[in-house]
Specification:
Strand 19 and strand 20 form a beta hairpin. The strands form five sheets. Strands 6, 7, 8, 9, 12, 13 and 14 form a seven-stranded antiparallel β-sheet that branches. The protein has two domains: 161 residues; 128 residues, no CATH class. It is mainly beta and 337 residues long. Helices cover 4% and strands 38% of the residues.
Length: 337
């Protein structure tokens, strides 16, 4: 009997695609790396740092717009060789879950935390003058924020808090652990001492209030508070159509896990872009920022549509420029070809 008649299943099957993101170091330009040799057994529900689980996504589309150009020679101008033209790769998909990071990635620019506001403050679309921050005391960690006796009374279980340094008129990237915005000139942000807490990714939800501290449901994404940090209550998130800052993150998408095999798409660097039609050169096409996904009329879920361009990464093994790595982990009984 031919070996082909009994070869194992080779079709990766999955429910949906799962998305994981990790911050790029914006100062050094160093991305987060998914090493398929190291993370072949990548735990989907508890990914290793710095990867952050952003849940299920729908309508995942990868588009390559990189042309192969012929090098022509001879009297007939026949193709004698080929070379690759301008690298251009795009992806787009719908986040099925809403959160701080999902909104920031789908919006693409600075993402704002709406700080609890002074009732007498002038109204602003991204939040007005906030209440005075409370000082974070030494000994605090990414999971426990020490504020001292009395100050804890300002918080309740379930509150969302932003924990970061005061803005001190510096320029460049700001935000503890994860670059949340870029300041060209202190006057651009009105020299606002609370500006970093307005944009920081260092957020937590209060799970427990002790006599002197706040215990968080999840550790702060950016890590332990910096010296002299303050904290303020966050009541909502807001992003804007426009803005000069571009988010940049590493991404990992996992599919086909239900059949025992696994497909991983690793993008070392993604930046927001327009959606591109897969068959129409590089012409951007109109797209909805949110998608209504019907559950049962008149009930529908609202999904966040996100689109990215893949930025280049130099492969350390051979110096080649790449924008995406596709890994396949066959099931234990699958044929190899």
């Amino acid at each position: 009997m031919s070996s082909f008649a009994v070869r194992g299943a080779m079709v990766p099957v999955g429910l949906r695609v799962r998305a994981y993101f990790a911050p790029v170091n914006r100062v050094s330009g160093v991305p987060a790396i998914f090493d398929p040799g190291k993370y072949g057994a990548f735990p989907l529900d508890s990914p290793p740092a710095p990867w952050i689980n952003l849940g299920w996504i729908d309508n995942f589309q990868r588009v390559s717009l990189t042309p192969n150009e012929p090098l022509r020679a001879g009297v007939r101008g026949a193709a004698a060789a080929q070379f690759r033209g301008t690298l251009d790769a795009r992806i787009d998909f719908d986040f099925r879950e809403w959160g701080k990071l999902q909104m920031a990635l789908a919006g693409g620019s600075e993402h704002m935390n709406v700080l609890a506001t002074d009732p007498n403050a002038e109204a602003q679309p991204s939040g007005g003058n906030p209440l005075t921050p409370i000082a974070v005391l030494p000994g605090s960690s990414a999971a426990e924020i020490i504020v001292g006796v009395g100050s804890v009374n300002s918080f309740s279980v379930g509150d969302i808090i932003a924990v970061d340094a005061d803005y001190q008129q510096q320029t460049g990237y700001v935000g503890t652990g994860i670059s949340a915005a870029y300041v060209n000139n202190p006057t651009d942000v009105n020299q606002d001492a609370d500006y970093i807490r307005r944009v920081t990714f260092n957020l937590g939800r209060v799970a427990q209030v002790t006599a002197t501290s706040l215990i968080l449901a999840q550790p702060l994404l950016g890590g332990a508070p910096p010296a002299g940090a303050g904290l303020q209550t966050v009541v909502a998130f807001v992003d804007r159509e426009g803005g000069a800052f571009f988010q940049e993150w590493s991404a990992l998408f996992v599919a086909g896990d239900e059949s025992g095999g696994r497909i991983c798409f690793h993008y070392p660097r993604l930046s927001p872009a327009t959606t591109v039609h897969p068959t129409t050169s590089s012409v951007p096409t109109p797209w909805q920022r949110e998608q209504a996904i019907e559950i049962a009329k008149p009930i529908a879920a609202v999904a966040l549509h996100a689109a990215f361009i893949a930025l280049p990464h130099t492969d350390e093994n051979d110096g080649q420029i790449a924008v995406c790595y596709r890994s396949y982990f066959p099931a234990a009984t699958a044929a190899l070809y």
